[in-house]
């Protein structure tokens, strides 16, 4: 918070109320994995009480017509980004520089401004937030038999940078933005309070299908190391034809802001690094540039601890850093899920079978991938 009030937090809650009151809009809401680990703090709920089921009930009471889960799109991201990684690895294109994850807009912007010459090393996969919006306005709109323009897609995110990401000209299909409105966890708390909703009194309700179905691999996206771990689970399956132990890649989980691990997938050595915090990202890139380290796949999250420590999450009165316990909550949820591999998500399988064809197909490229070079940082030409 700015001590002199010179900087103000952008508040989009009125736009949410306007959309909910518009009879011409079909309101679809997605909830990011990290939000479920933190939203209950503002209402004094224990972590086990602040469930996605209560969140679904609360969002329906607010008036959202379809309550979905960004975790569905996290599973989809793994299918696309994991396939891209294997493609790059097998094509031998990762000898000097790794593939960088692209789901954190804070990191993407940092790389483009500080090391623009490395932009092409970013995965071309859109973030789960954007993939979700793109699928909601194509496959889901088609399922409903409505024009994509009727769908108003709202995201509840732990992140303020997601607002800017959703407004990038590249995060649109045929000129239509994938996502229409992004609310932070703090804004969600504000609209629930404005409607006098007490989540503690609400029942557990299931999110809607198909975009509310997810696996444990999608849940861990909200913690540092989660994207890497989920991708390795599916990459191991693709290369060997059988599922590994879902905890086989636990070495990349929550830990110091810069950590590394090496694995062998079907005889192929894979060198990984996981980074959270942009100071650590700079250290890693300087080491890569100096030739001191070599990796194949690098996950970077701008916020310490990943999205659970995001800039849109509740701020506790004690100013305590809670990302450790929030991250642990996501790993507990992953362990409790009956399915822990993104490639086993039945609705992601249906999406490929009925609509996209296969990962990296032409349709998947059009809807789920982007060109990071197609937009410029303010005042900078690449
Ligand atoms: Fe947003 Fe932080 Fe998550 Fe990046 S790590 S997506 S900036 S909340």
TrEMBL record:
Protein name: Iron hydrogenase small subunit
Cofactors: [4Fe-4S] cluster
GO CC, alphabetical: membrane
Taxonomic placement: Bacteria, Bacillati, Bacillota, Clostridia, Eubacteriales
Biological processes annotated in GO: ATP synthesis coupled electron transport
MF term (GO), any: ferredoxin hydrogenase activity
Entry keywords, A to Z: 4Fe-4S, Iron, Iron-sulfur, Metal-binding, Repeat
Keyword Iron annotated: yes
């Amino acid at each position: 918070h700015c001590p002199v009030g010179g900087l103000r937090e952008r508040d989009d809650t009125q736009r949410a109320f306007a959309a909910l009151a518009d009879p011409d809009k079909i309101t679809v809401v997605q909830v990011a994995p990290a939000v479920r680990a933190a939203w209950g703090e503002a209402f004094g709920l224990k972590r086990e009480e602040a469930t996605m089921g209560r969140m679904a009930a609360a969002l329906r009471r607010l008036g959202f017509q379809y309550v979905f889960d960004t975790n569905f799109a996290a599973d989809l991201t793994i299918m696309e980004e994991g396939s891209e990684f294997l493609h790059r690895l097998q094509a031998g294109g990762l000898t000097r520089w790794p593939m960088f994850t692209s789901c954190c807009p804070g990191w993407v912007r940092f790389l483009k401004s500080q090391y623009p010459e490395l932009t092409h090393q970013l995965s071309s996969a859109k973030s789960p937030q954007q993939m979700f919006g793109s699928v909601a306005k194509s496959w889901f709109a088609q399922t409903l038999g409505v024009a994509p323009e009727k769908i108003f897609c709202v995201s509840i995110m732990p992140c303020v940078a997601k607002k800017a990401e959703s407004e990038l000209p590249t995060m649109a299909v045929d000129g239509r933005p994938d996502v229409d409105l992004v609310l932070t966890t703090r804004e969600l708390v504000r609209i629930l309070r404005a409607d006098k909703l007490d989540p503690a009194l609400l029942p557990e309700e299931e999110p809607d299908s198909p975009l509310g179905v997810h696996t444990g691999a999608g849940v861990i996206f909200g913690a540092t190391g989660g994207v890497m771990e989920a991708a390795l689970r599916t990459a191991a399956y693709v290369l060997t034809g059988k599922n590994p132990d879902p905890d086989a890649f636990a070495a990349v989980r929550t830990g110091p802001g810069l950590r590394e691990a090496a694995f062998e997938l079907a005889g192929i050595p894979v060198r990984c690094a996981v980074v959270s915090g942009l100071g650590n990202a700079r250290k890693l890139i300087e080491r890569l540039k100096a030739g001191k380290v070599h990796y194949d796949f690098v996950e970077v999250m701008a916020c310490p601890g990943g999205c659970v420590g995001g800039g849109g999450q509740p701020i506790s009165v004690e100013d305590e850093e809670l990302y450790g316990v929030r991250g642990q909550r996501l790993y507990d949820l992953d362990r409790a899920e009956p399915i822990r591999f993104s490639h086993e998500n039945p609705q992601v399988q249906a999406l490929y079978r009925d609509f996209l064809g296969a990962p990296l197909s032409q349709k998947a490229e059009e809807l789920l991938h982007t060109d990071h070079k197609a937009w410029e940082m303010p005042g900078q030409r690449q």
